[in-house]
Design brief:
By secondary structure, the chain is an alpha/beta fold. 39% of the residues lie in helices and 18% in strands. It has 22 helices and 21 strands. Strands 11-12-10-13-14-9-15 form a seven-stranded parallel sheet, sandwiched between helices. A hairpin with a 4-residue loop joins β6 and β7.
Length: 675
């Protein structure tokens, strides 16, 4: 196996320039080269002129009838024309920008050329010249992603050399039982079948096995990483007071749903365990995650530890503080809010109290984990809405303090496929039930020519003391995008609704100013709040019952669902109005499905289908792996099977004691490439 991890420079023909060109493609070792699979195949159909169909890609077998003619024109542009004799007819073949082929065409020599047939001109636009050896009538030609520094032909030559010398050394990721169970090929068969298939059927079989291998290997890496963390991170054992916890829950004034009780049980069980908790809590908007989180924090304090809650924005951090502080105060717990609004002297004073243990609950933004923040005894860390953290970011977060228990929360519903792929190293708890009696937010999509109807409806709602969110995609006018902006809408509404109190909120405002606006809105001192998506996450205004979203076609389904979740949090019937004149089918489909369902999980699955994995979160920000062959969405059944098999493997052999080669292989992989 060690030879596979040699540099590609060990191959014949790889000098410094070629080595750098390969590195630019992500090919550093011989193993990288073996598993650098083609994007597609060109089906090399050998046909006679009589069989050829116009514009079809075919292979012609002929004899060079005359010396090739090379013409140069423009900047580094060439046209090479050669005439071939076949079936008693002379056929002109043209090659653009391939002057090096001139030496291949010798009068009287038999050649194979591949290109597109023009039936009217009785000519071929050539793409490549093929070797006459080892060519069959059903040959496939692999096409690889490459760059300007490395010619396709050079890459194929190096791959052929690597496959010939090293493919039999490839480690079997899937053992024989697994291969028999799912009819998979061996590693050597996968490599050879992917690079040099003799038939389309062989290529398809190799690709199927390569997909499973890739998904299985990724799941193996995540499971191994999780196992390493569990073995190395001896966490805090939080022996909480069950009686006090029950009393805390009773003060809510409502019964927890069965889903809330289930996930709370999972979290509390983790907290009592000596291993550090590493759990993701996901639940739709309004499913009651905050009640679960508050109970877990209270439990940590009864066990003698501090608990912290980190929110993505200061608005949300302050809201958590205002909501949770009274709950904890009834049990004489002390709570602090760390924000940028504190003066240096105030901050120093609060940090001193945190370090000495005078605060039980600490709430804030990412500033909670700055180097100057020290905790006396941190037992539980809860991170709200940090679904953009990648695997390595989450690992580094857990290394703060003395291996505290970590609970990530998100109101962004995540389809099972994405959860397995993206959060595979975490335990997963799902609140899949909404509290009884919660009313569905009625959602409507209207075009901008219906604005008069929208304004009439808003006036009726305002007369009934409703509060209204109005969301714009931009803060101010943009030369690049013809979209509505918050400042423009704010001015228009001030004219149209002059008797009502209207405010503006956006991300460029100062923290104090934003806090004041949100507080006034929550206190019902504002009737209409015009805002950007700064209110997307977590903002809780129970009396707000109407959400209007301008240019709704510019938002993804998950974001639209989050915005809609800002209303419907009180007793009155709530509404969401989507204003948009979409120009493509995908946008129309997004708006249509928004009006049909309030189920965040269904919307998330549809969003995944419409936008794909990378677009949904953005690969670099989210840590979504860059799969080369498999597509977790299209290959979902295969992903779920791979996940299940890996779980069973680690359940029966947690330390991979009986799979030493596999363990060695996983240890050799750079786990940080998961991000």
């Amino acid at each position: 196996m060690s030879e596979l991890f040699q540099s590609v420079s060990y191959l014949n023909g790889v000098g410094a320039k070629t080595q750098q060109a390969l590195a630019d493609l992500g090919i550093v070792t011989i193993q990288d080269l073996l598993y650098y699979f083609p994007l597609r195949y060109e089906d090399l159909l050998l046909k006679s002129v009589a069989e050829a169909i116009d514009q079809e890609k075919i292979v012609l077998n002929g004899v060079v009838a005359s010396n090739p003619v090379l013409r140069r024109f423009g900047y580094k542009k060439t046209l090479l024309v050669v005439r071939l004799l076949l079936d008693n007819e002379t056929i002109p073949v043209s090659f653009f920008n391939q002057p090096w082929l001139q030496e291949k065409f010798i009068v009287g020599k038999q050649v194979l050329v591949y290109g597109r047939w023009n039936a009217d001109k009785r000519s071929l636009t050539g793409m490549k010249a093929l070797s006459t050896t080892n060519f069959s009538k059903e040959s496939l030609d692999a096409v690889y992603p490459t760059n300007k520094k490395l010619h396709q032909k050079t890459l194929v030559k190096l791959i052929r050399q690597a496959v010939t010398k090293y493919s039999d050394q490839a480690l079997e990721i899937c053992d024989s039982d697994l291969r028999r169970k799912y009819h998979l090929l061996t590693e050597t068969q996968i490599i050879q079948g992917m690079h040099f298939p003799q038939t389309l059927k062989q290529a398809q079989a190799a690709r199927r096995s390569a997909k499973f291998r890739e998904l299985y290997l990724y799941q193996l890496r995540l499971a191994y990483l999780k196992q390493q963390d569990q073995n190395s991170s001896i966490g805090v054992r939080e022996n909480y007071n069950e009686e006090y916890v029950q009393q805390f829950v009773q003060q809510f004034g409502f019964e927890l749903t069965q889903a809330q009780q289930r996930v709370l049980g999972e979290i509390l069980q983790d907290m009592k365990s000596p291993q550090a908790m590493n759990r993701l809590l996901q639940g739709d908007v309004g499913s009651g995650k905050t009640a679960v989180a508050a109970t877990a924090m209270f439990a940590a304090v009864t066990a003698g530890y501090q608990a912290s809650l980190m929110a993505p924005t200061e608005i949300l951090a302050q809201q958590h503080y205002l909501k949770l502080c009274p709950l904890f105060a009834q049990f004489q717990l002390t709570t602090v809010l760390l924000t940028s609004a504190l003066t240096p002297a105030q901050r120093a004073q609060e940090l001193s109290k945190i370090k000495s243990g005078r605060y039980n609950i600490i709430i804030g933004t990412q500033a909670l984990f700055q180097t100057d923040v020290s905790y006396q005894r941190l037992g539980l860390v809860i991170i709200d809405e940090q679904h953009r953290f990648g695997v390595e970011q989450r690992r580094s977060l857990r290394q703060k303090g003395q291996s505290p228990d970590v609970l990530l929360m998100t109101a962004t519903p995540i389809p099972r496929t994405l959860a397995i792929t993206y959060y595979g190293e975490m335990d997963l708890s799902i609140i899949d039930e909404l509290p009884a009696g919660r009313k569905r937010v009625e959602t409507f999509w209207l075009r901008f020519n219906k604005m008069d109807q929208v304004q009439h409806f808003l006036k009726l709602q305002l007369q009934q003391q409703a509060q209204i969110f109005v969301i714009a995609p931009l803060i101010s006018e943009s030369e690049k995008m013809d979209l509505h902006n918050a400042e423009e809408i704010y001015q228009q509404l001030q004219q149209e609704f002059s008797q009502y109190r209207i405010a503006l909120l956006h991300g460029q405002m100062g923290a104090d100013q934003k806090d004041t606006v949100m507080q006034n809105f929550q206190d019902r001192q504002i009737d209409i709040l015009v805002s950007t998506t700064v209110v997307e996450v977590g903002v809780d205004v129970p009396n707000a019952s109407v959400m209007v979203i301008y240019n709704a076609d510019r938002f993804g389904l998950s974001q639209l669902h989050q915005l809609r979740g800002r209303v419907g949090r009180g007793l009155r019937q709530s509404y969401c109005i989507l204003l948009a004149d979409p120009h493509n089918k995908t946008a129309i489909e997004r708006l249509r499905i928004m009006t049909q369902t309030n189920d965040g999980f269904k919307l998330a699955q549809k969003d995944l289908q419409l936008r794909g994995f990378g677009d949904l979160f953005g690969n670099k920000q989210s840590g979504i792996p860059d799969f080369k062959v498999a597509d977790p969405l299209a290959d979902e059944p295969m992903l779920l099977t791979a996940h299940q098999e890996v779980q069973q493997l680690f359940a029966s052999d947690p330390s991979l004691t009986h799979h030493l080669q596999l363990r060695t292989y996983l240890q050799s992989q750079q786990l940080d490439n998961l991000d």
